[in-house]
Amino acid sequence: MKEIIEVVVAHQQRATLRVGDVFLKIDTDQARIDVEVEAMAMVPVPTPEVLWRQPPVLAIAAVRGTALGRLGEPSTSSPAAWAAAGAAVRMLHDAPLPPWPGRSLDDIVSELDEECGLLVTSGILPADLVTRNRQVAEAALRPWTPAFIHGDLQICHVFLEGDKVTGVIDWSEASRGDALYDLATLTLGQEEHLADLVAGYGSDVDLDVIRGWWSIRSLLAIRWLVEHGYDPFLPGCEVDVLKARM
Fold first, then answer.
1. CA-to-CA distance for 63 and 45, rounded, in angstroms?
2. Is residue 104 domain-resident?
3. Given pLDDT bands bounded at 50, 70 and 90, which one contains residue 48?
4. Residue (of 92, 19, 32, 31) closest to 61 by Cα position
5. What is the extent of the structural domain holding 203?
C-alpha cells in the first residue's frame, strides 16, 4: 500500500508534510531550522529524531504516543498526564540557557501595541475586547529571569503514552524567555487543566501572569490566523480566550 502525503501545515513562511512516520519540514529561513536542530540536541526532554537535513528541508521521525490535546477541544488527558507534562516543562526550564537570545520585553510591548491598534482599525475585534485584554496583558509585561523556553509550546506539541511524555515537537521558536510563557501557551484554552500542570511543574505560579500571557498570545496571533486562512473564532480558540477575560 502506498504511503499518502498529509499536509500538516502550509503557508508562505513554512510547510510541514507527513509521509508515514516521517515529517518533512520545509522552511526557507535557515536560521529558524538551525535553532530547531540545535535546541533538540540540547534539551533534557524527549524530542523527535532528526533523520536528515537538506536545506530547505528537515526530516524528522514521528514521536510515539498521542498529543496532550488540541486547541478548541476539551483535553481528555488525565490529571497525571498534565502533571507529567508540567514536570517535563520544568526540566526544560531548569536546563542551561541556550546561547542565542530571545525577544526583549520592549519588542513584545511594541508589537503588542501595534497589533492591538490593527485589530481595532481592521474591524477584526471590537475595541472593548482589545482594550480589556491589553489591560490584562500588563501583568505579564514585567522583567523576568530568563529560562530555556520552547517558545511555541502548544498543547498539540506535547506527546504522551499513558502518563509518560514521549516527545515534544516544533522547537523553531526555542530561546531564552519567560518560563510562564510556556505554561500559558500549553494551557491556552485549557484553563481547567492549569492546576494539574502546575502540580507537576512543582513551584508557585503567578496566575495573573499566566492570564496576561494568554491575552498577549491571542492578541498577537488573531490577525495572522485570519490572514492565513485559519479561524480563531472557533469555539475554545483565541477569540474565546479573550472573551473569557471580560
1. 12
2. yes
3. very high
4. 19
5. 64-243
pLDDT given at position 89: 98
Contact (Cβ atoms closer than 8 angstroms) between residue 175 and residue 101: yes
Q: How far is CA 93 from CA 90, 177, 212, in A?
A: 5, 9, 20
Q: Is residue 21 part of a domain?
A: no
Contacts 24+ apart (CB under 8 A), 138-142: 138/212, 139/206, 139/208, 139/209, 139/211, 139/212, 140/178, 140/180, 140/181, 140/184, 140/209, 140/210, 140/212, 140/213, 140/215, 140/216, 141/105, 141/108, 141/109, 141/112, 141/212, 141/216, 142/105, 142/209
Is there a domain that residue 38 lies in? no
Residue with the three cell numbers 481595532: 120
- pTM over cut 0.90: yes
Reported as a single tens digit per residue, the pLDDT across 104-138 is 999 999 999 999 999 999 999 999 999 999 999 99
Residue 1: predicted pLDDT: 61
Structural domain count, the chain? 1
CB neighbours of residue 105 within 10 Å: 13
Query: Any idea what the CATH number is for the domain that residue 120 is in?
Result: 3.90.1200.10
